[in-house]
Amino acid sequence: MDLLDIKIFLTICETNSLSQAAKRLDLSPMNVSRRLSSLENELGVRLLQRTTRSVSLTVEGSDFYPYAKTMLEAEETSKNMFSTGLSKASGLIRITAPSGFANRNIIPVISKLLKENPKLRIDLQFSENILDIISQGIDIAIRLAPLRDSNLIANKVIDNPRILVASPSYLDEHSTPKNLKELAEHNCLKLTNVPYWFFEKNNQQSSLRIEGSFSSNNIEGIRELCIQGIGIAQLTLWDVKKELDEGTLVEIILQDVECQNLAVWALLPTNKYVPQRVNFFIQELKASFL
Question: What pLDDT shows up at residue 84?
Answer without folding.
Answer: 44
